[in-house]
């Protein structure tokens, strides 16, 4: 599994990608980063991966 998908289930990754694509096609026009829903999704995903890495380091 690649580092960017660490700690993410297959179902989450599929749902995330579909939502991201739908927002890309039918979402709002260009917005500043702090208001863009796709950027928010990317930040939340990165935070989820970081939490999984921290949990894995605590176990090891």
List the helices and strands and how they pair.
Elements: H1 10-26, H2 37-59
Task: Write a structural description.
- The protein is an all-alpha fold and 60 residues long.
- The chain contains two helices and no strands.
- The chain has one domain.
- It is elongated.
In short:
The protein contains two helices and no strands. The chain has helices spanning 10-26, 37-59.
Strand-residue proportion: under 5%
**Helix fraction?**
55-70%
From the alpha carbons, calculate the radius of gyration and give it in angstroms.
Answer: 14 Å
Mean of residue pLDDT values: 88
Q: What distance lies between the first and last C-alpha atoms, to the nearest angstrom?
A: 18 Å
Shape: elongated
**Unreliable spans:** none
Number of domains: 1
Instruction: State the major sheet.
Output: none
Structural class by helix and strand composition? mainly alpha
How many helix segments? 2
Number of separate strands: 0
- Element order: H for helix, E for strand: HH
């Amino acid at each position: 599994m690649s580092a960017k998908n660490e700690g993410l289930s297959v179902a989450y990754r599929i749902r995330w990608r579909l939502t991201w694509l739908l927002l890309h096609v039918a979402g709002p026009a260009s917005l500043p980063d702090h208001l863009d829903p796709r950027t928010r999704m990317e930040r939340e995903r990165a935070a989820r991966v970081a939490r999984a890495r921290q949990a894995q380091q605590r176990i090891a």
